[in-house]
Amino acid sequence: MKIQLSLLFLGLLAGRAxxxxxxxxxxxxxxxxxxxxxxxxIFYGFHAMDAQAVNIGTCAxxxxxxxxxxxxxxxxxxxxxx
Length: 82
Hints:
Elements: H1 2-14, H2 29-44, H3 70-78
């Protein structure tokens, strides 16, 4: 009898356990389309005219006065930028 009473009690409480059920809102169709378009534009929106010209063999970096790090030392040894 105790088992049946326990099962009845748990059965009544289980219907009220909404806190433990997942409730994820469904995305609206227009939100889904906007997100999809944004992702496509990121991956497929590249155009060759967007690329910047690269001058090989030049560097715009300058050594900082008083800095003795390896990078600034290398820049000083290479001389002025071409």
